[in-house]
Specification:
Largest sheet: 3 strands, mixed
Number of strands: 3
Radius of gyration: 19 Å
Structural class: alpha+beta
Low-confidence stretches: 4-8
Strand order of the largest sheet: 2-1-3
Distance between the termini: 63 Å
Number of domains: 1
Strand content: 5-15%
Number of helices: 7
């Protein structure tokens, strides 16, 4: 038994530091985000229990891909652990900027967002799709 525990302590990979979105928000300079409404709303939201979900961040074709920021209430999302791909070298500020951008518009431009909602509200198209 002693040999086994020695083996685990000696050869086990180092533990990854777990950071939730709430932790990330509290670790950056709040003055930098004083004009960001979503940041202010997240700061004033009480973290809920949440689920065992993760905000996944990876890079693909030179672009950050962020997933799981639209699942659950804001209180739930604050408790999600941020899982950054190991090959990414990104600062906390860059990470928070990317997450806030994804949460606010989902990466859509103004024109794409407008076109989506126009199509969504178009009842004639909705009948055709059904």
């Amino acid at each position: 038994m002693v040999i086994f525990s020695f083996f685990i302590r000696t050869f086990a990979p180092p533990k990854k530091e777990l950071m939730t979105l709430h932790d990330l928000i509290n670790s950056v300079d709040s003055e930098q985000y004083s004009d960001n409404q979503l940041y202010q709303k997240l700061c004033n939201t009480k973290p809920d229990y949440g689920y065992l979900r993760r905000i996944n961040i990876k890079e693909e074709n030179g672009k950050l891909i962020i997933t799981n920021t639209h699942i659950g209430s804001l209180g739930d999302i604050l408790t999600y652990v941020i899982d950054v791909a190991p090959e990414l070298n990104i600062s906390k500020v860059q990470l928070l900027d990317a997450i806030l951008q994804e949460m606010s518009k989902g990466g859509f431009s103004e024109q794409e967002e407008s076109a989506f909602w126009n199509d969504f509200d178009n009842l004639q198209k909705a009948k055709i799709i059904r």
